From TrEMBL:
Organism for this UniProt entry: Weeksella virosa (strain ATCC 43766 / DSM 16922 / JCM 21250 / CCUG 30538 / CDC 9751 / IAM 14551 / NBRC 16016 / NCTC 11634 / CL345/78)
GO MF annotation list: ATP hydrolysis activity
Listed InterPro entries: P-loop_NTPase, Rad50/SbcC_AAA
Keywords: Coiled coil
Transmembrane regions: none
Protein name as it appears in the record: SMC domain protein
Coiled-coil ranges (or none): 224-264, 292-326, 381-484, 541-571, 763-855
GO biological process: double-strand break repair
Record domain Rad50/SbcC-type AAA: where: 6-283
Keyword tRNA processing recorded: no
């Protein structure tokens, strides 16, 4: 996994948005993140791991989002882009918001994983990055990004935990074949049991049994052939007798059928006569009857239509007469309509004159009111001008008293900086006092006599050396007493004349008979006590080293804090030198504040005066606008008055029949009612006259059309009646040529609906059947000539044939049964041979699977492979560990799959890794972590490997730091990318590119690339 870009804000000490572009850092190969303790260095790693996995190793699961979000922020955002081992680009975004109503409630607003394809980001359904990166959250922190305090976790894991970790990282579960082998074994066992069961059904299938069946089958075949031949010969005889019997029966049947047809022949002849008569009459009269019916219907239709048209014509003529009567009664009113129209126009002119006269009176009244309002507004104008002059004079006086506000703000900023420096100096002095007290307390606690580290170490080493010698002496004494005790045990069982099991002697003088058990137990107790003292001294020595390291670190920190204090004093002095305002003094801020307060009061008064001036100017402008508006209004009233007078003069000249004086006593509303009534009446007369004329005009063409239609129907009716008479005359002439006297008789026959085709078919069929039966009877009589059939002989032969058929059937069934049984046994014997071969194959497979099951049982093979991977890790780690320790120490795996140290300074003896010092433990952890990262890289086939170390390197001396740095530089040449988080300045100076973390008290932490 390679990081590309990390963006975040509102996380721990970071308030403002931060962005890290890893491209330049990755190109460098080795980079560092440096800053003071608590500045927010480790937050960068936690931002990456939290973005990927959504959990916090530092905070656990309880309210971790609340604790992660900066207390001054309402939003926490992490946006991380990275490449996986397949060189695919991904981005994951997590955003959280603080609840507006409850400060402690943090809700997730957005969480989305994206993949970069086709120059765009596409969201994925799942947030699970483990399949993408190939590492779980825990293993990611052990191999790629190792958080602070987790660096030595790999060597501290139990063998089981370490095996599980390697299994996840290197996908060793593919070697866990126990379930597959068990499934194969179970399946093979089922097949074996089935095969055994099937074999048990073939126990009685033998070659002897098959040979016996073959002999019986040969005898049965000969017997079946004999019966089959006899049956075929007798069957031919019976078949000839059967055919003769059928011929005789057929001749008798056909003869009876012929006699029946001869009886039916009279009815057929009658039907033939009726059919011929129907055909003749239909041919001569059918068409004439059809034409007669059609013409009669046509005459009836014309009569009905003629009556209908005559009735409608009479109705139309009545309507025309009624319309002409109404028009005659309306004629006098219609002729007077022109004069009424003139009166209508005169009334409209009179109404317009009266409206204009009323408008003139109203306009004159409004003009008088407008003049009064102009006078009032002119008085307001004078008042506003006087007040505006007074306010402008007041503004000038305040301007003369005004201070330079910008300068006051600059002075205030200076005082703020000065106060911040004073606060920082006080805090720094408190830190220094606290550090001095802590150093003194630590020295008194671990070194009350204030001796040097070398002196205390020498005293402990001398005491430890004495204990080692004393314990070695005790071991020799215990060894001697143990041998003596064993010899005493042998001596108790020796007898004169019996061979000694040690030397073979038959004589045993000076037998040892004393009991040393109590003495031996006392020595062992002393040895245990001495060993405990050794452990105590070793622990004291480690505590001593740690204490002096802590004191050294605190003193270094104290020196840095004192240097920082001097820097603050220098900044304070430089700030005082920048104080250039002679009106004030740097130490007398109260004078400045009083002056500032007075200046702000003047500013407020100036602001109020300016607002009042603007307000008065606005009021004056509004007053002037009102005066102008009123003057324009009065002029408009006068223009409208002149226009109204002109309209009155024009309308008076247009009056013809009426005059204004005629309506002087009526109101405009009364005149309007008179006008509307006159208009309505005139319109009603005009519309009624038009409607009556239109109705008459519409009726006249309809009457003419109806008269034409009536005449046309009368002509068509006359023609139809003539044709009908002609047809009836023709039919009577044809009737005279027949045997019938009336047309009704003929019509009844023609309309009887006789089916001619069916009758002729029936007659024809009768003739065919009669002729066919006659010929067949004659033919059968000739066929039976000179032949005799005896029923008794025929039945005897049938009985003999049935008996012979039964014998043949039984013989054939026996032959088929023997043949089927023989084939079954042969097939079963062949299947038995195949099952025996399969049985042997399955038994061999069962033995092999049993061997494999023992191999893979309880994940033994996985543990074996894990051990190989662990040994490879150990070998790869030793390459760097040897270089770091100058070949003094080596790492190995013991029989319990745990780590041990080989100490070449002590004859190559092994000891626990827990006996290493803090610096040595760091070296072996770094070597293992680098080896593990390399193995992960090889496992996922990546071009570049990324590795992040969050350790302070404070446990390393300068020489060890050089070795570590050389190791890190060698990684750069191996295409490895390593990031380091530390506060050690010596490393910062030697790393080519770094990120510097600074923490501001107000704005929070900030990241700078250096």
């Amino acid at each position: 996994m390679l990081p590309l870009v990390l963006r975040f804000e509102g996380l721990y000490s970071y308030q403002e948005p931060q962005e890290i572009d890893f491209s330049s850092l990755i190109d460098a190969g080795l980079f560092g993140i440096f800053g003071k303790v608590g500045s927010g260095k480790s937050t960068i790693l936690e931002a990456i791991t939290f973005a990927l996995y959504g959990n916090s190793d530092r905070l656990g699961s309880s309210k971790f989002t609340y604790n992660m979000m900066n207390l001054k922020s309402n939003k926490m955002l992490i946006d991380f882009e990275f490449l996986n081992h397949e060189n695919k680009k991904y981005k994951i975004v997590r955003e959280y918001r603080r609840n507006r109503n409850n400060f402690e409630i943090i809700t997730q607003k957005n969480a989305q994983l994206y993949e970069f394809r086709s120059n765009d980001w596409y969201p994925l359904e799942s947030l699970d990055v483990e399949p993408i990166i190939g590492l779980s959250s825990d293993n990611f922190r052990r191999t790629i990004i190792i958080p602070q305090g987790k660096f030595q976790e790999f060597i501290q894991l139990t063998p089981t935990q370490r095996t599980h970790m390697l299994k996840e990282i290197f996908s060793l579960q593919r070697f866990d074949l126990q379930d597959k082998v068990s499934a194969f074994n179970k399946n093979n066992l089922e097949l074996l049991n089935k095969n055994t069961g099937r074999l048990s059904t073939f126990e009685n299938v033998t070659e002897t049994q098959i040979e016996e069946l073959s002999s019986q089958l040969s005898t049965s075949i000969i017997q079946e052939e004999k019966y089959r031949t006899e049956h075929q010969n007798l069957q031919e005889v019976v078949e000839k007798l059967r055919q003769l019997k059928e011929t005789l029966e057929e001749q008798q049947s056909k003869k009876k059928a012929l006699e029946k047809l001869l009886i039916e022949e009279k009815g057929i002849r009658t039907l033939e006569k009726q059919t011929k008569q129907y055909e003749q009459l239909s041919q001569g009269f059918s068409h004439g009857f059809d034409e007669q019916n059609k013409l009669q219907k046509k005459v009836n239709d014309f009569l009905d239509e003629q009556q209908k048209e005559e009735k409608e014509l009479l109705l139309l003529k009545d309507k025309i007469n009624q319309t002409e009567k109404e028009m005659a009664s309306l004629l006098p009113q219609f002729e007077a309509l022109a004069d009424k129209k003139i009166e209508e126009k005169d009334l409209e002119f009179i109404l317009s004159i009266l409206r204009d006269q009323a408008e003139i009176e109203n306009l004159q009244l409004r003009s008088r009111k407008g003049i009064e309002m102009i006078t009032e507004e002119e008085k307001k104008e004078t008042s506003h001008r006087n007040l505006l002059a007074t306010l402008q004079n007041k503004q000038k006086e305040l301007e003369q008293k005004r201070e330079n506000i910008e300068e006051l703000y600059e002075i205030e900023k200076w005082y703020q900086k000065y106060e911040i420096l004073e606060k920082q100096i006080a805090e720094q002095e408190n830190k220094i006092s606290k550090n001095k007290a802590d150093i003194l307390s630590t020295e008194k606690q671990f070194n009350p006599h204030l001796a040097t580290q070398e002196t205390l170490t020498r005293v402990i080493d001398e005491e430890f050396s004495k204990l080692e010698k004393s314990n070695e002496t005790l071991r020799e004494q215990i060894q001697n007493l143990t041998v003596r005790q064993q010899l005493s045990h042998y001596a108790m069982h020796l007898h004169e004349g019996e061979a000694c099991p040690l030397c073979g002697s038959l004589q045993h003088p000076n037998l040892i008979d004393d009991d040393v058990s109590e003495q031996l137990q006392n020595l062992r107790n002393k040895l245990l006590l001495g060993q405990e003292k050794e452990k105590t001294l070793q622990k004291d020595r480690r505590n001593l080293e740690n204490s002096f390291s802590e004191i050294k670190f605190r003193k270094e920190q104290l020196a840095k804090e004192e240097l920082e204090l001097e820097k603050l004093f220098s900044n304070q002095k430089n700030l005082i030198d920048t104080f250039v305002w002679k009106k004030f003094r740097p130490t007398q801020k109260n004078d400045f504040l009083a002056k500032k307060k007075q200046a702000l009061e003047i500013e407020n008064l100036l602001t109020e005066a300016t607002k009042e001036i603007e307000n008065e100017r606005l009021l004056l402008d509004n007053t002037l606008k009102n005066i102008e508006k009123y003057k324009e209004g009065i002029q408009g009233f006068r223009d409208k008055e002149n226009q109204a007078k002109a309209r009155i003069e024009l309308n008076s000249k247009n009056l013809q029949r009426l005059s204004v004086s005629d309506y002087a006593q009526q109101s405009q509303q009364e005149i309007r009612l008179t006008l509307d009534s006159l208009k309505s009446r005139n319109l009603e007369i005009e519309q009624k006259q038009i409607a009556l004329q239109e109705e008459k005009n519409n009726l006249l063409p309809k009457v003419a059309k109806k008269e034409a239609m009536f005449n046309s129907i009368a002509k068509q009716l006359h023609l139809a009646k003539t044709e009908l008479i002609s047809i009836e005359k023709t039919l009577l002439e044809r009737l005279s040529t027949t045997e019938f006297t009336t047309l009704e008789e003929v019509k009844r026959i023609v309309h009887s609906g006789l089916n001619v085709d069916e009758n002729w078919a029936k007659i024809h069929q009768f003739e065919l059947e009669k002729n066919a039966l006659s010929e067949m009877v004659l033919e059968l009589e000739n066929k039976l000539k000179d032949q005799v059939f005896e029923e008794e002989n025929y039945q005897t032969k049938i009985t003999e044939l049935a008996s012979l058929a039964q014998k043949h059937k039984e013989s054939n069934e026996r032959m088929i049964a023997l043949k089927t049984e023989k084939e079954r046994l042969e097939k079963a014997f062949e299947e038995k041979k195949n099952l025996l071969k399969e049985q042997e194959k399955l038994e061999r497979k069962a033995q092999n699977l049993s061997t494999l099951q023992n191999l893979f049982n309880r994940a033994g093979f996985v543990q074996y492979i894990s051990g190989i991977y662990l040994q490879q890790l150990c070998d790869n780690a030793n390459v760097r560990f040897h270089r770091m320790t100058r070949n003094q120490l080596s790492l190995q795996i013991n029989e319990n799959s745990d780590f041990e140290i080989i100490d070449y300074l002590n004859e190559g003896k092994s000891r626990s890794v827990k006996t290493l010092s803090g610096g040595q433990a760091f070296q072996v952890s770094l070597s293992l972590a680098l080896a593990l990262a390399e193995s992960v890289q090889e496992n996922v086939s990546t071009n570049k490997n990324f590795f992040f170390i969050d350790e302070g390197f404070g446990t390393q001396d300068s020489e060890a730091v050089n070795i570590v740095f050389e190791t890190l530089l060698s990684l750069q040449k191996e295409n490895r990318i390593v990031g380091i988080i530390s506060h050690v300045d010596e490393l910062k100076e030697r790393i080519p590119i770094t990120l510097s973390i600074t923490k501001d008290e107000v704005k929070g932490s900030r990241i700078d690339l250096q």
